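Quarterly update from the structural biology core.
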Amino acid sequence: MENESYIRQPIVSVLGHVDHGKTTLLDYIRGSAVTSREAGAITQHIGATEVPIDVIHELCGKLLGGKKFHVPGLLFIDTPGHHAFTTLRSRGGALADLAVLVVDINDGLMPQSIEAINILKNYKTPFVVAVNKIDTIQGWKRVEGGIGRRLEQQSSRTAQIFDEKFYEMVEKLFEQGFSSDRYDRIRNFKKNIALVPISAKTGEGIPELLMVLVGLAQRFLEDNLVTERGPAEGTVLEVKEEKGLGTTIDVIIYSGRIKSGDTIVVGGKNKPCVTNVRALLKPKPLDEIRDPSERFSNVKEVSAATGIKIAAAGLEDVFAGAPLRVAGENIQEDIDKIKNEMKIDIKTTDEGIIIKADAVGSIEALANIFRDVPIRKADVGPISKKDVVEAGTNQNPINRVVLGFNVKTLPEAEKEMVSSGVNIISSKVIYHLLEEFEQWKEQKMKEIEEERRRELVHPGMILFLPDCTFRVSKPAVIGVRVLAGEIRPEQKLMREDGKTIGKIKSIQVEGRNVEKATQGMEVAISIEGATVGRQIKPEDVLYVDMPQEAVRKLMDMNLSPDEQDVIDKVVKIKRKSDKFWGT
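Predicted structure, tokenized:
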């Protein structure tokens, strides 16, 4: 039957912080069944590992209590990490039906774990937390059975350490907006995140993890897993050069069926590419590879959900994360659908930062994380000279920045950056990008504030120190202490009666000239137009003579209480002769 419907296995993505055990977990799951060498043993796909339901039944044994499942198994995506998660999308949402967040029980939630949680939250993907490395807890003994029974067999000290670390994680998840608990204590899996204690190294808890994943899929996802044997839809995992095959694409097919010879439409960097499937290739089981050049076996067709390598002409412009469709009778309709799927649906403004990333999904994840920052342009591909030039046209210096996630910076862009004053920040980790951007922004704001202060006449109040007259006039050179605010050369000074007494020509500290003197400093200043004994005398308090315009502008700036106090005094002095001065 051409379009009969069936339930496919759910696609499970594995995420987590570096070194928390994502790869070890997948290796254990694969190894546990590869060693059994039975029919139904785990099959390796391109970029994915399929664990059939009979293998899960065998691994979980008594835990299932004879329960039967309709899902045919689980398909784990083998490229762990957020990159794969954000890159792999189906019709604009996340490709994965479920996710496993692997967290080291000793480290708890690290920045990358929190980043992964935010991405899962953003895509509304149900997930389970695999609390890994329980075998490293002091005194831990490996015991068979469920987690409740295994904890009862540990020493009281070991059980206490486990509980402390475990509930610290529950607390941290609560801070992220999730209610969670040990899987065996949860009644409502829709409202609570299941935590499954495991050891990816020894295999403890992995049967329970598989059981929870299959249970969740059966209970909450079954309707989403119904697919027809119609034309396939999929997502490109990787674009690779293969010896003797040319450019090939590794694809996860999440719906329908694809056959050798089918016409396919795949997203390209500039426009969708239309080509015919020359070969569908699956990896041969390890024991069948006699010659490394024959790593793949040709298959005539595959159905969802599966990972497959496709050899076809004209795939050079295809990129990771691009959508794929088997073309129906109306190819133009499929081209339009793909164009629509590749649209980056984020709000841009005329003034804002520029974001470049490796895939559409990454851009959407970044746009969500940088949602409080105006974005001028967000695009897939390397950072080019054009991006730097465009960033340089922003009015606000804080927006003169290009952020790159998992992309290269072209040499001409680097050259342009040096001459244009635009900053390029790039990283392979989203939270590093955010951290560096925040640091740069803070630094830039300080520089802008400093620049504004330089342009403005700033409040300052000084005391003419007794016994510190070094020259009486032309210019007068005296010793002063800055009581509040700051003084700079070229500023006019006035007395407490409002009379202007001259202009600061230079400021010296220990014989060297300085650009400014701030609160608490004792310095020598030369004053043009003042004579000691006439206009000024020791122990006089002098103020920077501020124009009205400067006072008005300073009202909008972050002033210290002392600076504000000086301005208030200046305004009071000026208003003796002009009632409305400074308003």
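The first strand starts at residue 5 and ends at 7.
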